[in-house]
Amino acid sequence: NKKAFVELLFWKSPAAVREMTEGYGSLREGEGAGRSRVPPWTPQEEQELRELYWKYKGVEGEDVIAAIVARLPAPGRTRRQVVKQLVRL
C-alpha cells in the first residue's frame, strides 16, 4: 500500500500500531487497550442505575454519583464508569 506511511503518522493506540505492523485482523476480538478491563453492563445493572439516578437526582447537598456508586449492587464499578454509562443511557 503506497499510502501506509500516512497512517503511521496518526497513531491512536499501541494496539492500533501493533495491528498495522502485524497485519490487520491480527488482534483477536476483545483484545486491545482497555477492552478486557471493563465488564459490560447487564440490563439489570442498567435498570438499577436508572432507578438510583432518579432517586438521588433531586437530593440537594449530596453528590449524586457518589450516592449511586455506594449503592450499586455490583461492586467494582468506578465513578468514571458510572458517569460514562449514565451519559450513554
UniProtKB/TrEMBL annotation:
Pfam families for the chain: HTH_TIMELESS
GO process annotations (BP): DNA repair; DNA replication checkpoint signaling; replication fork arrest
GO cellular component: replication fork protection complex
A Gene Ontology molecular function term of the record: DNA binding
Alphabetical list of InterPro entries matching this protein: SANT/Myb (IPR001005), Timeless (IPR044998)
PANTHER family in the record: PROTEIN TIMELESS HOMOLOG (PTHR22940:SF4), TIMEOUT/TIMELESS-2 (PTHR22940)
Protein name: TIM protein
The species this protein was found in: Steatornis caripensis (Oilbird)
